[in-house]
Design a protein that fits this description.
four-stranded antiparallel β-sheet; 41% strand; mainly beta; six-stranded antiparallel barrel; 209 residues
């Protein structure tokens, strides 16, 4: 497989397995593939090399006419998730080709996993940025506030990038070098050591190394 190639998957949840020494290993269960190549992009036509993959089969009547026309080029099967993988040579793949889990990921290797982190809503600086906060007792009126946020005389404004309360989570997170504990091709399932970004049933991009 070319560099940066990967597969799309869905986070199922977490459990644990026991290794050959009898130690419990926490793992994340991910349903990965099969994915279909929907489109090839090249430098000549699009300015960069990439392949577009579809994951999660969807009924054809649930897509718009433009989407149906796009899916028709690769066989007509519609998908919930459509994502791209930038690879050095898209010519290695054919439109309509099905990419299975075992084609990309092997047991014992490491992968990079990208997902959307869990949303936590509007949060203060203590939870969002790990601020210490003020004293909790003895008449203190400063507990979880951010404190001074700017200068009075110069430049008389809040500096860009200041850590303040705001929306937390729902960000693209890439976790690197996660060990593949097991690959179960018959179930389209892989077990990844530790945690991965996102919530249950969230979409994951898994990059093989």
């Amino acid at each position: 497989m070319p560099r940066n190639m990967g597969i799309l998957g869905k986070k199922i949840g977490m459990t644990r397995v026991f290794n050959e020494l009898g130690y419990a290993v926490p793992v994340t269960v991910v349903e990965a593939g099969p994915c279909r190549v929907l489109q090839k992009k090249t430098i000549a036509t699009d300015g960069y090399d990439a392949i577009q993959l579809g994951f999660g089969e969807k009924k054809a009547q649930r897509v718009s006419k433009p989407e149906a026309g796009h899916f028709k080029q690769s066989g007509g099967q519609a998908y919930y998730f459509v994502r791209e993988f930038r690879i050095p040579d898209a010519a290695l793949f054919e439109v309509g080709q099905v990419i299975n889990l075992a084609d990309v990921i092997k047991i014992g290797t490491t992968v990079h996993v990208q997902g959307i982190s869990k949303g936590a809503g509007f949060q203060g600086v203590v939870k969002r940025h790990g601020f210490r906060g003020g004293r909790a007792t003895h008449g203190s009126m400063f507990h979880r506030a951010p404190g001074s946020i700017g200068c009075s005389a110069y430049p008389s404004r809040v500096i860009k990038g200041k850590k303040l309360p705001g929306h937390m989570g729902c960000e693209t997170v890439l976790k690197k070098n996660i060990k593949v504990v097991d690959v179960r091709q018959d179930e389209n399932v892989i077990l990844l050591k530790g945690s991965v970004p996102g919530k249950k049933n969230g979409l994951l991009k898994i990059f093989a190394q």
